[in-house]
């Protein structure tokens, strides 16, 4: 037995008793390089003496390549492969296919025909009468007479029993369609290496996007091409890039053309069919001579919008142990061409109208940054000095076909700054302190500014209670700015028209000059704090306060559009975010996400004498307005007349009276916004959901006002038979109102009913609605296929954007802007609906 046990344990005993040193396994390449290295060093073997020194790898080295040379410097080792030169190419190809449908749209009535009361009875009145209202008889009470009629192939409408028995058709004049989009892009990057060092790099990009957009007969295409190359020689690097982008569309919207198409489609009575033709002989075929057939506006209109941009840049960098300097030259050339045509016979433009606008921008910019780090002193004193200088030379030319409408702007500006910073790093703490000063001067500014101080600090403390870390930052800075001369403010021309005059809108004036303005003055404080656990869970918050003085706004004076320094305002807000990051990428299932809460206010703190209540965007009768002490999101319009106690004053006929004086009626800025993103990962599948909830904020629903006026809204259809209604308020004598009214009394002229008596814009106050919404912005499901090696993969995605929208607002998506214009949030006058997007994406990374 003892021999058997000895036999069993012999291998373990033998291995336990054998004492031999651990020998390094050395490759032949490595041994040869060490032998060569010894010949160039002191007799004492420096490699052997530094055998226990931790060294870092300088540059990039692929361990699969044979070794050509090794070089050590201080605590760095550089390994060069045997291959003298080799080219590394990578890139990606991606394609998107999307289908888009219209989101929220105004509610319309489909029950009543074109017409008005005649001899106390609602009567159908055809297009030849010029009728604009849909206060005619119910469609179910009408039929065709079968006679030849140029406005309808089935004949005129008449009362049931007086025609041919063919019931009246309820026509659908929706101008929207299912939109489609196809986008493809190819990116290729290449790197040329020599002995393991990248000596040259290049990149190129090609992309194309084609859209059949939401409104029928509209489309656009965008082509992008880019290329770049760079090289590095020891401490010197240089690179150049060029990008070209070209977009063309057959219908632009600078003059609100697409909104006009949408407006005419919604206002067309259900008893008229736009699709039966756009011409009657040489005249436009529309439901009224004061309105347009939207198909007439779209077909063969010669409209076009072309935008192209060329961007070139050259960047040089010099970097040594303690110094780094970068100089970048860039030049941008942008060309824009608008051809806006209304054919003869168009409502408000019987002789036709054509606007040709061309805009050219040429901008040169020199940006430089220099940083010198003082050689290492100690953990608490590692100072660095930074200098920045930016020079811009911008030119903009705008020309119209109208005589005298030619504009030329030029600006040269200089901005420079110097700063000193100290980096502290000791144990668990790392921090940076920076203080500096900037200067600003420009040929369009009245004065130069040489004292614009800034101060910032950020710190990070790691491994608190083993797994916690905290990071904070704060900054205070003063800076100046000017309105970009290439940003057109032609949209402000809309302020010269009331909402009911929108068909006459023609933006032909630009700013007279950008010269002799005081630079806009900003003083801003920001702060943030982030607490994280195990680098996966975090909570962070940030806040800001910005005081702006001498802000510039456009005003009309002496018939000219001029820029003036007229207002001061203060913006402040904060955001809190709670989140979780993904863990180990090898986990079978993982979850990540974040939720944020943000709010801000913007208050006008001062307005120059004579400029209080200045309109800044919108129409002449409803607009965004500057009011001293009010919000920057204030909306102004007419209101009901009220007595000293704030009660609505009712007229002798029982309907509320109107105060013609414009007042603040709403605020477009929301109370707060919450966003939530959820990410789920299961093996190679990824699911992403993005939610957004906005609480508060007001919208003026001018679309509803116009639809009510013309009798096309669902509300006017549902409520036109209400009688005996008593408005809450007081009479002009101060007594409680007791006069009952009918919303629509056929015995009275149509202009006296509930909705028409106040005009096409109605009473603006009555159409202020809350803009709260809850939106599911994105659902995206992706699957990743790992291809030939670790850097190559195929990713397939399916997604839906804006799939769900709940809102208290009764119009379109509250995020849509008036005529696509800047600063028109809170205003809706036939804003084009947003879209739901269903898309597929395939991308290949190689």
Written overview of the protein:
- Among the domains are: about 30-85, no CATH class; about 115-160, no CATH class.
- The strands form eight sheets. It has a 22-stranded antiparallel β-barrel. Strands 27-28-29-31 form a four-stranded antiparallel sheet, with no helix packed on it.
- With about 850 residues, the chain is mostly beta strands.
- Residues about 1-25 and about 35-50 have low confidence and may be disordered.
- The protein contains seven helices and 40 strands.
- The protein is globular.
Index terms:
single chain, 40 strands, disordered N terminus, 7 helices, 22-stranded antiparallel β-barrel
Distance between the termini: 65 Å
Portion in helices: under 10%
* Overall number of strands: 40
Sheet-strand content, in percent, reads over 45%
Largest sheet: 22 strands, antiparallel, barrel
What is the CA-atom radius of gyration, in angstroms? Answer: 36 Å
Q: Could you say which overall geometry the principal axes of the C-alpha atoms support? A: globular
What is the mean predicted local confidence, pLDDT? 91
Count of runs of 4 or more consecutive helical residues: 7
- Contiguous runs where pLDDT drops below 50 for at least 5 residues: 1-27, 37-49
Keywords: Signal
Protein name: SusC/RagA family TonB-linked outer membrane protein
Signal peptide: 1-16
């Amino acid at each position: 037995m003892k021999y058997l046990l000895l036999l069993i344990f012999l291998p373990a005993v033998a291995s336990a008793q054998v004492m031999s040193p651990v020998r390094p396994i050395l490759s032949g390449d490595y041994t040869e390089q060490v032998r060569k290295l010894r010949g160039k060093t002191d007799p004492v073997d420096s490699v052997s003496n530094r055998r226990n020194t931790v060294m870092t790898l300088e540059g990039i080295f692929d361990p699969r390549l044979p070794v050509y040379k090794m070089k050590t410097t201080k605590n760095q080792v550089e390994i060069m492969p045997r291959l003298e030169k080799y080219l590394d190419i990578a890139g990606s190809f991606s394609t998107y296919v999307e289908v888009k449908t219209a989101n929220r749209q105004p509610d319309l009535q489909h029950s009543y025909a074109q017409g008005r009361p005649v001899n106390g009875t609602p009567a159908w009145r055809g297009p030849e009468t010029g009728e604009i209202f849909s206060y005619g008889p119910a469609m179910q009470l009408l039929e065709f007479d079968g006679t030849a009629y140029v406005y309808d192939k089935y004949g005129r409408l008449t009362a049931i029993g007086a025609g041919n028995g063919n019931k009246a058709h309820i026509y659908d004049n929706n101008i929207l369609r299912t939109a489609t989009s196809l986008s493809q892009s190819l990116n290729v990057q290449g790197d040329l290496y020599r002995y393991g060092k990248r000596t040259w790099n290049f990149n190129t990009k090609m992309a194309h996007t084609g859209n059949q957009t939401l409104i029928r007969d509209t489309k656009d295409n965008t082509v992008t091409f880019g290329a770049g190359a760079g090289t590095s020689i020891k401490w010197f690097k240089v690179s150049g890039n060029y990008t070209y982008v070209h977009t063309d569309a057959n219908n632009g919207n600078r003059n609100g053309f697409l909104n006009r198409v949408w407006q005419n489609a919604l206002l067309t009575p259900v008893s008229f069919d736009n699709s039966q033709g756009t011409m009657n002989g040489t005249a436009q075929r529309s439901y009224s001579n004061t309105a347009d057939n939207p198909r007439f506006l779209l077909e063969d209109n010669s409209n076009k919008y072309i935008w192209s941009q060329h961007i070139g840049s050259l960047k040089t960098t010099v970097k040594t142990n303690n110094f780094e300097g970068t100089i970048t030259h860039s030049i941008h050339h942008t060309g824009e061409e608008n051809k806006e045509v209304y054919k003869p016979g168009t409502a408000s433009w019987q002789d036709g109208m054509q606007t040709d606008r061309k805009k050219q921008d040429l901008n040169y910019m020199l940006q430089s940054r220099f940083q010198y780090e003082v050689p290492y002193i100690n953990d608490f004193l590692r100072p660095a000095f930074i200098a920045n200088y930016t020079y811009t030379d911008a030119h903009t030319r705008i020309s119209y076909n109208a005589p005298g409408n030619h504009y030329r702007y030029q600006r040269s500006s200089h901005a420079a700054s110097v700063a000193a910073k100290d980096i502290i790093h000791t144990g668990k703490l790392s921090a940076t302190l920076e203080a500096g000063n900037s200067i600003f001067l420009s040929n369009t500014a009245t004065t130069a500014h040489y004292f614009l101080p800034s101060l910032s600090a950020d710190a990070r403390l790691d491994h608190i209670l083993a797994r916690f870390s905290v990071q904070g930052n704060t900054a205070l800075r003063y800076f100046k700015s000017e309105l970009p001369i290439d940003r057109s403010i032609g949209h402000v021309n809309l302020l010269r028209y009331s909402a009911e005059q929108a068909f006459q809108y023609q933006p032909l004036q630009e700013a007279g000059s950008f010269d002799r303005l005081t630079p806009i003055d900003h003083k801003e404080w920001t702060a943030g704090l982030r607490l994280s656990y195990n680098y996966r869970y975090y909570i962070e918050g940030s806040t800001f306060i910005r005081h702006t003085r001498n802000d510039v706004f456009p005003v009309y004076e002496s018939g000219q559009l001029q820029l003036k320094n007229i207002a001061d305002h203060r913006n402040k807000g904060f955001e809190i975010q709670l989140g979780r990051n993904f863990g180990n990428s090898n986990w079978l299932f993982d979850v990540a996400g974040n939720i944020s809460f943000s709010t801000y206010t913007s208050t006008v703190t001062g307005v120059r004498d004579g400029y209080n209540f200045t309109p800044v965007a919108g129409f002449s009768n409803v607009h965004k307005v500057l009011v001293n002490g009010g919000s920057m999101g204030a909306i102004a319009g007419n209101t009901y007349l009220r007595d000293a106690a704030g009660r609505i004053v009712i007229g002798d006929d029982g309907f509320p009276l109107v105060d013609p004086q414009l007042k603040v009626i709403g605020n477009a800025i929301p109370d707060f916004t919450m966003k939530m993103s959820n990410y789920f990962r299961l093996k190679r599948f990824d699911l992403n959901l993005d939610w957004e909830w906005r609480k508060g904020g007001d919208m003026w629903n001018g679309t509803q006002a116009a639809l009510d006026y013309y009798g096309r809204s669902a509300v006017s259809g549902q409520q036109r038979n209400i009688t005996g209604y008593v408005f809450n308020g007081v009479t002009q004598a101060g007594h409680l109102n007791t006069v009952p009214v009918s919303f629509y009394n056929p015995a009275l002229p149509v202009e006296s009913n509930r909705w028409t008596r106040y005009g096409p814009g109605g009473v603006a106050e009555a159409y202020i609605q809350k803009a709260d919404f809850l939106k599911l912005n994105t659902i995206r499901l992706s699957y990743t296929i790992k291809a030939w090696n670790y850097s190559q993969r195929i990713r397939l995605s399916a997604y839906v954007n804006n799939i769900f929208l709940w809102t208290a607002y009764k119009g379109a998506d509250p995020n849509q802007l008036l005529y696509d214009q800047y600063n028109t949030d809170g205003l809706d006058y036939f804003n084009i609906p947003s879209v739901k997007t269903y898309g597929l994406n395939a991308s290949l990374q190689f």
